[in-house]
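Render this sequence as a predicted structure.
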Amino acid sequence: MYPDAFIKSFKQRGSALVMALFVILLMSALLLFLGRQLISSSVAVSYEVQGNRAFNAAQSGLQTGLVRLFPIIGSASCTANSTVTFNTPGLDGCSATLSCEQLENPDNSGRPLYALQSTGLCTAGDISTSRVVRMEAY
């Protein structure tokens, strides 16, 4: 009645459907994995950029402290704590908290030694990072 080729192809008809479903599931899993990798890598880059901004804010806070400590005109000022808020395009949303402490100079007792510490804090959206920079000057 039916030729052998027709019976053979009729028996194999379900295996193509199973193979197609397997390939679709495999490709979906691969796309899901790659999507998650992309999201986690972009979050890591965001933290790295925010960390660099916080470091630059801390460095700028130290520079502000040095200008107060060694002014061109006027007297030196070593304030206990002060906060600098930045609104420049690169540091918008960042601030620096500066602390200054006068120490005894082990090399020259007649010349004071100052310890400056600046904590830079940057916030953008739900990402917040901070960096601390410390230096001594006399």
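Summary. The two ends are 106 Å apart (CA to CA). The chain has a mean pLDDT of 85.
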